[in-house]
Amino acid sequence: MTTQSQPSVRSPRRFRPWLVGGVAIVILGAGTAAAVFLWQRLSQRPIAPGMAIAPKSALLTLTLPTDPKPWEALAKSGLLQAQPWLNPSYDPLSPEGVNLAQLDYLKDVRPFIGDQATVVLLPITPESVRESPVPPHVWIVPTLNVPMGEQLLQSVIGEPITEINGVKIFKAKGILPDPDSGANTSGAQDAIALVTHENQAYILWSQHQSALQQVIATAQANNGIGSQPTYQQAVKGLSDHRPLVELYVNLPAFLASQMAAPEGSLPEPPRELQGIVLTADMTSEQIELEAVTWRSQQDQALVSEGESRELSRLVPETTLAFYSTGSFRNLWQNTPASVQETITNTVKELTGLDWQQAFVPWMDGEFAAAFVPVPALGNAPSLLFLSQTSDRPQASQTLSQLDSQIRDRLRWQVQQTATEPQPITTWRIPPGLPVGQHGWLNDQTLFLGLGPLTDMSTPPERSLADSPLYRAVLPQPKDTQFYLNLSNLGSLQNNLLLPELAPEVARSLQPFAALGITSHVRDNQFTHYMARIRLKPLSPP
Q: How many whole angstroms separate alpha carbon 515 and alpha carbon 520?
């Protein structure tokens, strides 16, 4: 009897749950890491390439698109014609500038360079003054790669001038008008160079070799503005899109340089602000500005100023200017010390009351200030303050103290009338002319009016919150906000409360209908701003 051999059967592998769990953890971890990486890449707004080699000592930088299309759209808007100060002068890559070098911008320049170019303004030094009377600045133009940068350089350079830190400096070939061409360049020598940084090539142009030296040193040290953590955090707070214009200002250095100038007349800046990044975009209807400012980490931490939604419903649609915040007490905490001191001293001088002790503690709700036209007085503006409080007794006590000071210190008449629904107190100067008024609009909201008095005894038929112009520039007015009706700005002229605008300023504001600004405290160091400037419709040709 033969025995049929059975095929050998391999015993099943032993199940190892730890192996499956380990693979799952690896897959999950890799997926999570990839998701985090992608989220960081997608959520982080790109930094302009030129900022990588912009020196930290820069007063400001301005980044512009190199594509002509946005500028063509801007030219068609008519804004440049209405605002001559916006018309750009010669720059190294403008069509006017490259034409002087017998180049075609779209054919000979644009294909070689990146989408953005950055101009850097540096502090004036004795050496820069000897080189050129204009403020020292450098154009930083990224090229697509090193070979293309070298090719572009060859088309715009003249004879060699010198060498800085191993980088050859050449005379620029006709990028700007030569002194002999009749243009006013004060005999300055245009210098151009190519510098590389992290596999990126940059064309540098300047009338100041000392400025070129600073940019070259920054590129070689790899410590430009773009590498600074505070700047990176500020830029990350901006919308993730490529704007028409991007501006960075080193506020302490810039304002100090302006105050040191012979014609400088700027006031002492708030020392708390360290910098600002700002972007600008434009549509056919409005200009949009977005900005982030920051303080030093050593300063007192910023606090949220709350939401401001109610008080715009208590002033009329015709309001000329309006500012409001969700909590005055928190706004006061964020206010620079120098501004606090000015306000406190002014209130003390006028009323004899301690602002921080008598007013600030109970001003814990929304606060607003507005200029409201008074039709019965030729639309002369009334200055109106509104404040919400959760401590009405304390607020009423402060108003009583204020009335006493007005009567005893200024010798004004103080008269209370039993109007409905709340009594109103009026201040009068001889021979009985009303110049001030205060009262309660509801259980938590009081008002104080100065100058020509507007009727606050009844709610407006149409409030500012209902105004189409207001909603156009403040579509989501929930944070601290500012509104200015530029269409009726003439109503603010010829009054005792505001200085008259210079004629050239008034003319420059004519194309604009309204301005709206919101601010939001992002964290304890950064504040985010959004501004919209509504344009008036263009008149038919």
A: 17
